[in-house]
Amino acid sequence: MLQRRLIPIVIGALLVATAVFVAAGSAETAQDNEPQLDESIDSMDEAVTFSRNINEMKGHLRASVRISADFQPSEAEFHGGHAFTDYWAEGSIRGPIEPAVRNADESLATELEGELRALERNSTSLTTEEYEQRVNEEVFPLLDRALSESIPERFRENASFDLRVMNALFDRIDEEYTAGVSSSGDPRGIDGYREYWDAVGFIGQADTLYTQEIAPTLNESERAEIEEQFARLQAAAAFSRVPPSELKPIVTDLRSHLSDAVDAANGTASAET
Prior knowledge:
Layout: H1 2-32, H2 44-69, H3 73-85, H4 98-104, H5 106-125, H6 128-150, H7 153-156, H8 161-180, H9 189-214, H10 220-239, H11 244-266
Helix pairs in contact: 1-8, 2-3, 2-6, 2-8, 2-9, 3-5, 4-5, 4-6, 5-6, 8-9, 8-11, 9-10, 10-11
């Protein structure tokens, strides 16, 4: 009888493990297909990957600040450190961005590295207000300079550039949210909880990127509708924590609407990542 009771438990555990493994495998495959970044940004694909990485770093910091406000110091520290360990140097999981930044501006690279290294410590040694101010007023401007000085203008000024970066962020949001949240809407353990907050941070940064770079090129009605879609996405992920199957169509609809709006504004067909 005990053996019969154990069978569904074991099967359930295997199904969960398989889902996590598949999600992780998909992430590794997508990463393997990305261009390898070095000291020179020579193609649009490299420019999009570099910019997406900068925006992901900002997303991690947005998550870190928000978690700090929720009095979770160890998690704030984890996400603050992510911005450096996962993106900066050779051998990092998602980067590296250092070679291109250092090639463009040695002093900027040194200053940015110092700020990134201090984030993990600052997330707990400063008050939440001080930490947020440090991120917004010191780190983000340096990341903005790193992007503008490392990516050649011919890529940054291309009409499809910001949309391609946004689409790449949408891919990462879907990837992290699916890896972190189960079909019941619960985090998949501590690792899943962290993946979930990665996705929430990336959503916040995607919203900011849209507001700063894309919204000014659209008409008022398009801006209002897309802002409402971003609000629905934020609410579904950050407040309701819906299952991935419910988040995906929200992202898909937003992505499609944004692409159509940019196409109409530019009078062109947008390039997808």
